[in-house]
Structure formats: C-alpha cells, structure tokens
C-alpha cells in the first residue's frame, strides 16, 4: 500500500510551545512589549487630556478651544518631531539618543509649571486670569 508511511520516517506538524525561547528571541519580545507600552501611554495621554479640557480651561481662565491647543500642539510636535529626529539622529548610537532624550525631557518638563499664565492666552485673557 502506497498510503502507509515508512516506520523510519518521523514528521510532525505540531509546534512545541513549551520549549523555552532562545535568549535572543526573549530580548526581541521584550523590546516589542516596551514599544507597545510606550505607544499605549502616549495614545492614552491625549484621550485623558481631551476629557479634562473643561477643567483646564476653568483653571487657566481661557476658553475650552484655547485649552484644546495643548492637545493640538502636542500632536503636531510629535508628528513633525518624530520624522525630523529620525532623519537627524538615525546614525547616532541608540543608547546615546535614549539617554540624551531622557535627560532633555527631565530638564524641560518642570518649565511649564513655572509659567504664570498659559502661553497661548491673549493679553486680554491674561489680564482676566491674573
């Protein structure tokens, strides 16, 4: 019978999922997970911000539309900056770019908290809120 397999031929179509991943593959998945968490955090950040625009506008004494510029400016800066920084820093070592970016973020993050009024408000709005 031609349909029978020889006893010395062994084959399987089932992948053994219990086998441990090689170290190289584990590091690759760790990078994918880290990028996924980062993308989730950035995306969630803007949704949370949109829900708080009413409170932000009341606290700053500006219109909701003016407070909404925070979301617009962030999105534009992110879109333009990602392309430009990729082109400019593409040949730099990744570790140097990451450490430099984190340091710059840490240095510049407290600056907006020290502003007395919203930078996008008009002089009239500043006089009313101040």
Task: Write structural notes for this entry.
The protein is an all-alpha fold. The chain has one domain (24-120). Helices cover 65% and strands 0% of the residues. It has five helices and no strands. It has helices spanning 23-51, 53-60, 64-89, 94-108, 123-129. Helix 2 packs across helix 3. The longest helix has 29 residues, at 23-51. The protein starts with 22 loop residues before the first helix and ends with a helix. InterPro entries: MFS_dom, MFS_Efflux_Transporters, MFS_trans_sf. It is a multi-pass membrane protein. The chain crosses the membrane at residues 29-53, 65-89.
Topology of helices and strands:
Layout lengths: L22 H29 L1 H8 L3 H26 L4 H15 L14 H7 L1
Helix pairs in contact: 2-3
List keywords for this structure.
130 residues; 65% helix; single chain; disordered C terminus; 5 helices
Largest sheet: none
Proportion of residues in extended strands: under 5%
Residue share in helix:
55-70%
Structural class: mainly alpha
| End-to-end gap | 95 Å
Number of spatially distinct domains: 1
Average pLDDT, all residues:
75
Detail the poorly predicted runs. 125-130
Number of strands: 0
- Helix count equals 5
Question: What's the alpha carbon Rg, rounded to whole Å?
Answer: 26 Å
What coarse outline follows from CA principal-axis ratios? elongated
- The helix/strand order is HHHHH
Domain Major facilitator superfamily (MFS) profile: 31-130
Organism: Nonomuraea recticatena
Subcellular location: Cell membrane
Protein name: Major facilitator superfamily (MFS) profile domain-containing protein
């Amino acid at each position: 019978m031609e349909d029978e397999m020889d006893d010395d031929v062994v084959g399987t179509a089932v992948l053994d999922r219990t086998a441990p991943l090689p170290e190289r593959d584990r590091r690759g998945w760790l990078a994918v997970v880290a990028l996924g968490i980062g993308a989730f955090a950035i995306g969630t950040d803007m949704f949370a911000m949109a829900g708080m625009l009413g409170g932000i506008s009341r606290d700053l004494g500006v219109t909701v539309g003016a407070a909404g510029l925070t979301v617009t400016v962030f999105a534009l800066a992110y879109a333009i900056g990602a392309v430009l920084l990729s082109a400019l820093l593409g040949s730099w070592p990744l570790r140097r770019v990451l450490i430099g970016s984190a340091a710059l973020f840490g240095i510049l993050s407290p600056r907006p908290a020290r502003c007395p009024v919203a930078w996008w408000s008009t002089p009239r709005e500043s006089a009313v809120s101040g």
